[in-house]
Amino acid sequence: MPRPALSRLALATLLTALPLAPVALAAESSAKLEKVASFDHQVTGVTVSESGRIFVNFPRWTEDSEVSVAELKPDGSLAPYPDPAWNGWRNAKRDELTPGNHWVCVQSVVADGRGSLWVIDPGAPAQALVVPGAPKLVKIDLASNQVSKVYALDESVAPQGSYLNDVRFSPDGRHAYITDSGARGALVVLDLESGKARRALDGDPSTQAEKGVKVKADGEPLMRPDGRGVEFSADGIALSPAGDYLYWQAVKGNTLYRIATAALQGDDLASLPAKVEKVGENGPADGLLMDPQGRLYVSAVEDHAVKIRENGQLTTLVQDKKLIWPDTFGRGPDGTVYVTDSRIPEMSFFDPKQKPALETVLYKIVPN
Fold it and tell me: Which positions carry the signal peptide feature in this UniProt record (predicted)?
């Protein structure tokens, strides 16, 4: 039965105290997709700077891609970013190039709205072994197009089996919060002033792939030829507008979680599991994005859709069969939301007949 209407105060109290049950979705979507660009390689991340510059990245999953991070120019061309040298790594040249100052397997790019682009490199080509010295968070100054800081993330933070996935930044610019979607999921909290990083909720149920969940594509379990399914742990990440709550969920999972960022910044890691809150159930999802109004965009990977969670309600914003796997969101300075389609169900991991290089698309969401 439908719930009675609640005041915003009452609803906020309920959100904090109890997990929300799944709710009905809107019958019709209220937006449509418009293609921005297509790529010859598998795209995951997208971000838009405060001046409107668009950046994308291509992880080294099934191919040894020629470019890892690029700026998407207005004419649709890609410019290796910040320069060709950073994009010079090749799997075959790993003994010739140092991994600490080259892109090894970039998963995410995030513009912070304060003049910098940040790049997450988990350093694990094919989502397999971590290349020693490769995991890092890199800050690039957008005015000079030069790397201004490299935060090397050692084995205590990015051990073998890890796959650092996405990042959000505290409003004061002091902390970075990173998801690890690898075999043993976790959150990584990085103090950007001291450079100290640590794993939080390492192995906690909230950061793991949920047992019993099978991610589906067009209604059928998505499986590799060897019988393995989708196993991504803590992946999508979002920060509340005030920066007081961090949200995340596993791709192989239904549940959205959150925790107060003040707890993550504290020293008592042992007490964190008791402070995790269940917000509700989204179903399997990849990317998350929270806008300034507190609306959470959810990539509904099983439904070819983008959904919005607002005031405890989960509704469909846009649904289109051509959106094979909505992956990552970016929000432009004018409020336009962009989404990459990484086509994960069609990659050679799951369909050996596919060629290694997978053509993918960047969309923007526009009113219907």
Answer: 1-26
Q: Is 21 a domain residue?
A: no
**356 vs 120: CA distance, rounded Å:** 23
Q: Which two tokens mark 92?
A: 């075959």
Burial of 365 (0-12, 13-18, 19+ CB in 10 A): buried
What token pair was written down for 90? Answer: 């090749």
Nearest to 234 by CA among 122, 105, 337: 122
Q: How many domains does the chain have?
A: 1
Residue 174 resides in a domain:
yes
Domain span at residue 220 reads 31-367
- pLDDT of res. 37: 98
Q: How many CB atoms lie within 10 A of CB 196?
A: 11
Alpha-carbon distance of 272 to 264, in angstroms, equals 7
CA distance 66 to 201: 35
Look up residue 222 and give its two tokens: 């998505």
Whether the pLDDT of residue 3 is over 80: the answer is: no
Across the beta sheet with 116-121, the strand order is: 108-111, 116-121, 136-141, 146-152
DSSP symbol at 125: G
Residue 137, domain CATH: 2.120.10.30
Q: Which one-letter amino acid corresponds to residue 172? A: D
Name the nearest CA neighbour of 335 among 293, 301, 288: 293
Name the least confident of 11-20, 90-99, 315-324.
11-20
**What is the C-alpha separation between 317 and 330, in angstroms, rounded?**
15
The reported pLDDT for the residue numbered 95 is 82
Considering the domain boundaries, does residue 74 fall inside one? yes
Burial class (CB in 10 A: 0-12, 13-18, 19+), 271: exposed
The answer to whether 23 and 312 are in contact (CB under 8 A) is yes
User: What is the reported pLDDT for 28?
Assistant: 60
pLDDT, tens digit (0-9, with 9 covering 90-100), for 102-138: 999 999 999 999 999 999 999 999 999 999 999 999 9
pLDDT in the model for residue 14: 34
Please tell me the distance from the alpha carbon of residue 340 to that of residue 362, in angstroms, as a whole number. Answer: 5
* Residue 27 structure tokens: 């019958």
The 10s digit of each residue's pLDDT in 89-104 is 998 888 889 999 999 9
Phi and psi torsions of 127, nearest 5°: 55, 35
